Amino acid sequence: MIALIDVGNTYFKYVLVDADTKPSFDVGYTAVKHNDVNEQLLSTILKDATTVVYASVSNKVLLSTVTTYCQQNSIACIHVETSAEALGVKNAYTDFSKLGVDRWLALIAAKHYFPDQSCMIVDAGTATTIDIINSQGVHLGGWILPGLDTMVNALLQHTDKIEAEIEYPQQVAFGQNTQGCVNNGVVAATLGGIEKAYQKLDNQDTKLVITGGYGELLSSQLTIDSILEPMLVFKGLYQFKD
């Protein structure tokens, strides 16, 4: 088995795939909080693994925990990091190391699963990121927006009278109370950012690919046709298995 591990800003996410057959990625992933990751959990996750492919946007302690466990148990461990160029994709950043590895993996996956096509990739998590890749595999740059929860928390922390629980709408409307205004407002702002980015594209045949924890919520409310790919980052990790 191959264990694909993606450590984001909030969650440690993993999926197990068969080493001998091309995975369908239909099973989805499992997510646990960073603080819940320990040797006991790893022994359960990795008991049948021969290879671990790992990427992390921030947590060096978890990286050390995983690599140490793999070394102690003779499991091959591949640590994927952002590079200037890999697997047919060229990074737009002058300092390539500053591009988050989750964004890099999404670009790698888009190049592999949508070959010879331009893509705009939206990853909706703690941050909502937007990245453009052309049909030749050249990353053209992107935007970073606060994620939905991040926007709500910023409002609650920096205002005295706004109080709201997170309850995002399945269809944006005008709120009739503060909570409704906040929840509808942050979704509307994010949808507007995505659609504005798409309007700026030179190629209006670009595929819009949505991933991340809030991908489904956003995808269903866009006026632009989109492809929901909740496993996009894992599909990118899988390309590094060899």
UniProtKB/TrEMBL annotation:
GO cellular component: cytoplasm
CC cofactor note: A monovalent cation. Ammonium or potassium.
This protein's pathway: Cofactor biosynthesis; coenzyme A biosynthesis; CoA from (R)-pantothenate: step 1/5
Enzyme kind, highest EC tier: transferase
Matching CDD domains: ASKHA_NBD_PanK-III (cd24015)
Sequence positions that bind substrate: Y93, G100, V101, D102, R103, T178
Binding site for K(+): D123
Location relative to the cell: Cytoplasm
Superkingdom, natural source: Bacteria
Molecular functions per Gene Ontology: ATP binding; metal ion binding; pantothenate kinase activity
Its EC number(s): 2.7.1.33
The keyword Transit peptide belongs to this UniProt entry's keyword annotation: no
Keyword line: ATP-binding, Coenzyme A biosynthesis, Cytoplasm, Kinase, Metal-binding, Nucleotide-binding, Potassium, Transferase
Assembly with partners or alone: Homodimer.
HAMAP family documented for this protein: Pantothen_kinase_3
NCBIfam families xrefs: baf
Its biological purpose: Catalyzes the phosphorylation of pantothenate (Pan), the first step in CoA biosynthesis.
Protein name: Type III pantothenate kinase
Organism: Thalassotalea agarivorans (Thalassomonas agarivorans)
Gene: coaX
